[in-house]
Amino acid sequence: MPLVSSTGLKNAVLATSSLSAALAGGKIRIFGGVAPADADAAETGTLLCAISVNGTATGLTFEATPVNGAISKNTAETWSGTNVASGTATYYRFVDPGDTGAASTTQVRLQGTVGLVGANLNLSNVNLVSGAPQSIDAYSATLL
């Protein structure tokens, strides 16, 4: 399944920003349950983990130069967090830190699947346990 962009992200990229600039400083929220129909819809399911730089308030960034049409995780950063609930990770959203998760056509969001192999975000284990550390070692996003 391709990544799903919110209307806010599409508008930012088309009018004033690059994909990496629009997402810079954001966080990844990992959820269990059925994914919303699109990235404009309200979050659904259970929030399992929020990923930031070293699990702090610092937002995520990307490498300066895209490669083969994709932006990649800044290799100088450790993307991590602590699981806040137990469950099976099924989808994620890359969001601005202030995103409340409510339905919105102005929030910058990127939504994708979570799995072991062949998902938009591959984890070594999709069965997350509350209180355990969670990291993302590799991440890339491609515009289609």
Summarize the structure.
This protein has 144 residues and is mainly β. It is built from two helices and twelve strands, in the order βααβββββββββββ.
How is this structure best described in words?
The chain is mainly beta and 144 residues long. Helix content is 10%, strand content 33%. The chain has two helices and twelve strands. Strands 1, 2, 3, 5, 7, 8, 9 and 11 form an eight-stranded mixed sheet that branches. The longest helix is centred in the first third of the chain and has 9 residues. The radius of gyration is 14 Å and the shape is globular.
| Distance linking N and C termini | 12 Å
Secondary-structure element pattern, one letter each: EHHEEEEEEEEEEE
**How many runs of DSSP E, i.e. beta strands?**
12
Average residue pLDDT: 95
Instruction: Label the overall shape.
Output: globular
- Structural class call reads mainly beta
Question: Level of helix content?
Answer: under 10%
Helical run tally: 2
Radius of gyration: 14 Å
Low-confidence stretches: none
As a percent range, the share of strand residues is 25-35%
Main sheet attributes: strand count, strand direction, barrel closure: 8 strands, mixed
